[in-house]
Please model this.
Amino acid sequence: MSNRFCTGCGAPLTPDMKICPRCGKVAAVSARPRPQQRAPRPQQPVRNVRTVRTGQTVQNGQTVRNSQPQARRPQTAPQRRPAPMPRPSPAPERQERAPKKRSKKARMIFHAATAAVVLVGLYFAIFFVQIFRVKISTYDFKTEIKLESSNYGQAMESYFESGKWSVNPLTGTCTYTGTTKHGDEYEIVYTARLKVDVKNISINGKDVRADRIESTLMGMFI
Model:
């Protein structure tokens, strides 16, 4: 088999040919070997191929790095959840108001109790003041005589064994009721306004006449 070929048309030439019988071109001394066709390489089946996030491909259990790394996903800012709307607090339950009649009655009771306390306090104040005025007062005797007592308080303390006082603030009178050492029951009524005077005296339930009041009192003072 000749290894010479025509440079014009590529026809095979024998070693002794100098002109190509096909195209008539002078054959040069050259030889062009025919390219040998390579047998196709059998392709191996690819299995277990998977791409991981690190840019590497795994084939048949072996890791193969990819020439181009996988593009990273842009990081997105975490979405904030909207704040929950505040729930309206339940309205406080309204307390039922007491009837106006009951409140009015309670006010009346309160005012009445306050007035009673004030009146009692005022009565005791007048009571002690009036009695004190009577005790430090004396009778203006017309007859000059030496007396053992200088006022009503001393005279009644020495003349009576027991006794008690009562005061009427409306009339301004003070009443003394006492028992003497002889067992006589006396009731002496004094008026204590601007001046202290003896209004009436009764002994054992009988009133003493006005002209005998001075002598009766003198018996208490001497």
Residues 31-36, 51-55 have pLDDT under 50 and may be disordered. The chain is about 25% helix and 20% strand. Residues 47 and 60 are 6 Å apart (CA to CA). The longest strand covers residues 160-168.
